[in-house]
TrEMBL record:
Subcellular location: Peroxisome
Name recorded for this polypeptide: Acyl-coenzyme A oxidase
Record: residues binding FAD: 53, 92
Pfam families noted in UniProt: ACOX, ACOX_C_alpha1, Acyl-CoA_ox_N
Active site residues according to the UniProt entry: 335
Highest taxon in the source lineage: Eukaryota
Stated family: Belongs to the acyl-CoA oxidase family.
Species of origin: Branchiostoma floridae
Pathway per the UniProt entry: Lipid metabolism; peroxisomal fatty acid beta-oxidation
UniProt domain Acyl-CoA oxidase C-alpha1: residue ranges: 189-350
Oxidoreductase in keyword set: yes
Catalytic activity: (5Z,8Z,11Z,14Z,17Z)-eicosapentaenoyl-CoA + O2 = (2E,5Z,8Z,11Z,14Z,17Z)-eicosahexaenoyl-CoA + H2O2; glutaryl-CoA + O2 = (2E)-glutaconyl-CoA + H2O2; octanoyl-CoA + O2 = (2E)-octenoyl-CoA + H2O2; octadecanoyl-CoA + O2 = (2E)-octadecenoyl-CoA + H2O2
Keywords: FAD, Fatty acid metabolism, Flavoprotein, Lipid metabolism, Oxidoreductase, Peroxisome
Sequence ranges assigned to domain Acyl-coenzyme A oxidase N-terminal in this UniProt record: 7-46
Length: 572
């Protein structure tokens, strides 16, 4: 993934060719269509963009305005941008790099609209890279980060494409214009589910990068006096520095393991779907949407914690942390804005809760919802036992899902329409969904450290990291656990003191734990996080290369400062 994020140089980028365009062909094209386009894409004989989002719509896919109208007389689709807001806007590579795009458009045939479907459209000449007739292209301008990627815009003025350019693995339009229904209308969204799943690994890698940089730098940086007269300590000796960095380090491992589960689930469920069994699709969508939302949000916040923990040098681009933050911030919006994605997970949880209330035994990642007892059993819990910690997170999530669902039922009993009841409970629903995903991440972390094939000494360190991650979550969200008495104040105090012990326990292994991510300096692109630790010499070399240092006296002196100084001195 990191390699795919490397751009080919300023101003162009083929990230989306690899992570969105090519997978869309793999997942949505027929075997015939794959023969025509897949190898071209895999060999980069064509370069593609995934053109779905428009200036006026990103989240609400059913609201997209681009149209694909079937003309049976020529057996072609006519792709058109009817309004300014229908302009495709944001797709990576669309501005200057791609010569093809999968375009998501409202399909019309025989005067009826069948909703959003994907169409293969050539947008630039393969001879001279000029836009094809009827296609207007451009870059959307500078962004917060990743300005090496030409996120672009595209407008289509009645561009004609052959019928065979509709990606027809699931839905089809026959030559006479007959529409053939897919097994599920949401299969057109399958590429988004796949990409959200890969974002979990992107988040893990980003947080692994940030913690590698910050932990290594915190061993190089010495500052202040812990005891009068003693040498300045490594800043990683301060408990506050450990409290900032080690929960992020633990989260990086937790998300890395969660991405393993996500990849395995995606493979197995899509494998079943290939055989016509769609039963896993809803769980896959809910899990990928929730994990994407949760891991990218925690990662973006965590990278900024790492940046701040590195002081002024963390704020310099020499650290690599501002760029990482900008990239991770993009992951919170791209591929489904986080709030909307977490609401999709909440929608699934409410549905599962109702099924459980009706006596259905739940399975998969929501099985705990029917197994967890509503009545809290207060008492002195062993807050260092992973089973106890997992059970606490599951109880919290089950309680919050139940509370949100019952609130919604109450609103509807007062006469509110379901949609209004949903909206008036959506903050509760989001928090419940976040608690659900958090409990999944904790459970998966615990199960992984207990089963992964490693040396027992490594298992001991990973177990401490899992305890640290869980205890940090409990102390940060203590109110959720105290609310129904499931945990007592004494339990929370025990969790806090055990967390402090875990910080000290992880300290000796901190550098080994980040080295284990095996992120080469060329990937980290950070003077502070260099493997050899030679920060200061390279910081000086890095600064000297700043464009401002090309001349001793910058031209701006002669243009602005000199006359300004002169006129001020003349007034003295
Ligand atoms: C290594 C370090 C990396 C660090 C980062 C460094 C650099 C990166 C920097 C820059 C790069 C950043 C990003 C680049 C990567 C990717 C580029 C981004 C690409 C894109 O953004 S592509 C466009 C993405 N757009 C979206 O995701 C749109 C989101 N909206 C939707 O998916 C849908 O509109 C919706 C929100 C799900 C609603 O759909 P709708 O049809 O209205 O359905 P509902 O009415 O809400 O529900 C009906 C029903 O359907 C079920 N459902 C919905 N979606 C799915 C699905 N996908 N699969 C299965 N089922 C689905 C839903 O659950 C409901 O079911 P019910 O049973 O409850 O009825
Ligand atoms: C770096 C980057 C790369 C991208 N690459 C691509 C790409 O390659 N291809 C592509 O097609 N798109 C791409 N996108 C676009 C991306 O998919 C959209 O930005 C994203 O889907 C969000 O849609 P939007 O921007 O229209 O925001 P909106 O949907 O307008 O959301 C704005 C706000 O409204 C809130 N909101 C919207 N709907 C609801 C709701 N139902 N309930 C509660 N709150 C709601 C959201 O939570 C959000 O806070 C990219 C975006 C970025 C930032």
């Amino acid at each position: 993934m990191a390699a795919a994020l490397q751009t080919l140089g300023g101003g162009i980028g083929i990230t989306l060719h690899w992570i969105a365009f090519t997978p869309t062909i793999e997942q949505q094209a027929t075997e015939e269509q794959k023969k025509k386009w897949l190898k071209l894409a895999q060999d980069v004989a064509i370069v593609g963009a995934y053109a779905q989002t428009e200036m006026g719509h990103g989240t609400f896919v059913r609201g997209l305005e681009t149209t694909a109208t079937y003309d049976p007389s020529t057996q072609e689709f006519v792709i058109n941008s009817p309004t300014l807001t229908s302009t495709k806007w944001w797709p990576g590579g669309l501005g200057k790099t791609a010569n093809h795009a999968t375009v998501m458009a409202q399909l019309y045939t025989r005067g009826k609209c069948y909703g959003p479907h994907n169409f293969m459209v050539q947008i630039r000449s393969l001879e001279n890279h000029q836009p094809c007739p009827g296609v207007t292209l451009g870059d959307i301008g500078p962004k917060m980060e990743s300005n090496g990627n030409d996120n672009g815009f595209a407008r289509f003025d009645h561009v004609r494409i052959p019928r065979e350019n509709m990606l027809m693995k699931f839905a089809r339009v026959e030559a006479d214009g007959t529409y053939v229904q897919p097994p599920s209308s949401k299969l057109a969204y399958s590429n988004m589910v796949y990409l959200r799943g890969t974002f979990v690994m992107s988040a893990a890698q980003a947080l692994a990068s940030a913690t590698t940089i910050a932990v290594r730098y915190s061993c190089v940086r010495r500052q202040s006096e812990m005891k009068p007269g003693e040498p300045e300590p490594q800043i990683l000796e301060y408990q506050t520095q450990q409290y900032k960095l080690f929960p992020q380090l633990a989260a990086a491992y937790a998300f890395w393991f969660a991405s393993w589960f996500m990849t395995q689930q995606h493979g197995s469920i899509t494998g079943s779907m290939e055989k016509g069994d769609m039963s896993g699709l809803a769980e896959l969508h809910a899990l990928s949407a929730g994990l994407k939302s949760y891991t990218t949000a925690v990662t973006a916040r965590g990278i900024d914690v790492c940046r701040m923990a590195c002081g002024g040098h963390g704020y310099s681009h020499a650290s690599g942390l501002p760029a990482l933050f900008g990239g991770a911030a993009a992951l919170c919006t791209a591929e489904g804005e986080n709030t909307v994605m977490m609401l999709q997970t909440a929608r699934y949880l409410v549905k599962c809760f109702a099924q459980s209330q009706a006596g259905k035994r739940l399975t998969g990642t929501v099985a705990y919802l029917s197994a967890v007892q509503p009545s809290p059993v207060a008492g002195n819990r062993n807050m260092s036992d992973l089973g106890t910690l997992v059970a606490a997170f599951q109880h919290r999530a089950a309680r919050m899902v139940r509370h949100a669902a019952m609130q919604m039922q109450g609103e509807m009993q007062k006469g509110k329409a379901r949609e209004d009841a949903w909206n008036s409970c959506s903050v509760l629903l989001i928090k419940a969904a976040e608690a659900h995903v958090h409990s999944f991440v904790v459970r998966n972390f615990a199960e992984t450290v207990q089963t992964v094939e490693v040396d027992e000494s490594v298992r001991a360190v990973l177990t401490s990291l899992c305890q640290l991650y869980s205890l940090y979550g409990i102390t940060e969200h203590a109110g959720d656990f105290l609310k129904d008495g499931y945990l007592t104040g004494r339990d929370i105090d025990a969790a806090s003191s055990h967390l402090s012990a875990m910080l000290a326990r992880v300290r000796p292994d901190a550098v080994a734990l980040v080295d284990a991510f095996d992120l080469h300096d060329k990937i980290l692109r950070s003077v502070l996080g260099r493997y050899d630790g030679r920060v200061y010499e390279h910081l000086y070399e890095w600064a000297k290369k700043s464009p401002l240092n090309k001349s001793e006296v910058h031209e701006s002196y002669y243009k602005y400062l000199q006359p300004f100084l002169k006129s001020n001195r003349a007034k003295l």
